[in-house]
TrEMBL record:
Source organism, top-level taxon: Bacteria
UniProt-recorded name of the protein: SDR family oxidoreductase
GO biological process: bile acid metabolic process
Keyword Oxidoreductase found: yes
Keywords: Oxidoreductase
Pfam annotation, one family: adh_short_C2
Similarity annotation: Belongs to the short-chain dehydrogenases/reductases (SDR) family.
Keyword Oxidoreductase: yes
Alphabetical list of CDD domains matching this protein: BKR_like_SDR_like
One term of GO molecular function: oxidoreductase activity
Length: 261
C-alpha cells in the first residue's frame, strides 16, 4: 500500500529515542519530512544523521522542553519556517515515575500533568492553525493503561486515560476541518522505558529483570515483547493517506496482552 507520505511534513515529539524515534524513522522511510525534538541536543544531532539516511524525507531538529509553553510555540514556528506547512502531529512524552498514590506529593502530580497531558494540549493548540490550512492527522501516544490500569503506575494511569478523552472530543470538534485524531497505546514494547519498569517490578518481587520479563511474556498471547518498529508502522498508517475514515479511535499495539474488550 502506498501511504502517500512523500513530501508530507510531520512533527514527532520526544523523538530522540524509544517509540518517538521509531515513528520518526518510519515516516522518513515513507518519504515524509520530519521535525524531531527532545531535551537532548546531542542525541538529536546523532538521530538526525542516522535516520535521514533511511529514506527520501528530510530531517531537522530543535531542542525543546515540552513542559515549557514558550518552547512549544517556538517548535511549531520552527517547523513551519523549515518546511512551510504541517500535515502530521505525533504527540508523545516519556512516562512519569512509577509509584503508589501515597508515594507522590502535589509537585509530582503537577509535573506529570504538565508532561503527559498539558504538553499534548499545548502542542495541539499551536499546531492547529497550520493543520487547518489543508487538513491533517493528529496521533496521540498513550499507554495500554487506558484500557487496563497498570499496578504501581498511578500517575501514568491517570493522565494517559485523559488523553483518550481529549482525542475523542477533538475528533468531533475538528472533523469539519478535515483533521483526524486518534490514540495509539503501546503494551510491552521493548524500549528503555519498559526496561526501567521491569527493573522496578523485579526489585519489588525479589527476582532478576530477566526472570520478570519471562513471567510477563506468559501473559502476552503472542509470547514476546513488541518492537518499536512494529508500533511505529501502526502510527505511520494512521498518520497517512491510507487512513481516511478513522478518527476518535483508540488502537492497542500490545500482542493481545490487554484482556479488556
Amino acid at each position: 500500500m502506498d501511504l502517500n507520505l512523500n513530501g508530507k511534513v510531520a512533527l514527532v515529539v520526544a523523538s530522540s529515542q524509544g517509540l518517538g524515534r521509531a515513528i520518526a524513522e518510519e515516516l522518513v522511510k515513507e518519504g515524509a519530512n520530519v521535525m524531531i525534538t527532545s531535551r537532548d541536543r546531542e542525541k538529536l544531532q546523532i538521530v538526525k544523521q542516522e535516520i535521514e539516511q533511511l529514506g527520501s524525507g528530510k530531517v531537522t531538529y530543535i531542542k525543546t522542553d515540552i513542559t515549557n509553553p514558550e518552547e512549544i510555540e517556538q517548535l511549531i514556528k520552527a517547523t513551519n519556517e523549515q518546511f512551510g506547512k504541517l500535515d502530521i502531529l505525533i504527540n508523545n512524552a516519556g512516562g512519569p515515575p512509577a509509584g503508589s498514590f501515597d508515594s507522590f506529593a502535589d509537585s509530582d502530580w503537577q509535573q506529570a500533568f504538565e508532561l503527559n497531558l498539558l504538553s499534548y494540549i499545548r502542542m495541539i493548540k499551536h499546531a492547529l492553525p497550520l493543520l487547518r490550512k489543508q487538513g491533517g492527522k493528529i496521533v496521540n501516544i498513550a499507554s495500554s493503561s487506558i484500557k487496563e490500569p497498570i499496578p504501581g503506575l498511578i500517575l501514568s494511569n491517570t493522565f494517559r486515560t485523559a488523553i483518550v478523552g481529549l482525542s475523542k472530543s477533538l475528533a468531533q470538534e475538528l472533523a469539519a476541518d478535515h483533521i483526524l485524531v486518534n490514540t495509539v497505546a503501546p503494551g510491552r514494547i521493548a524500549t528503555d522505558r519498559i526496561t526501567y519498569l521491569d527493573e522496578v517490578n523485579a526489585k519489588k518481587q525479589g527476582i532478576t529483570r530477566v526472570e520478570l520479563e519471562q513471567k510477563v511474556k506468559t501473559t502476552i498471547p503472542l509470547g514476546r515483547y513488541g518492537t518499536p518498529e512494529e508500533f511505529a508502522k501502526v502510527v505511520a498508517f494512521l498518520a497517512s493517506d491510507g487512513n481516511t475514515y478513522m478518527t476518535g479511535s483508540t488502537f492497542l499495539v500490545d500482542g493481545g496482552m490487554v484482556k479488556a474488550i
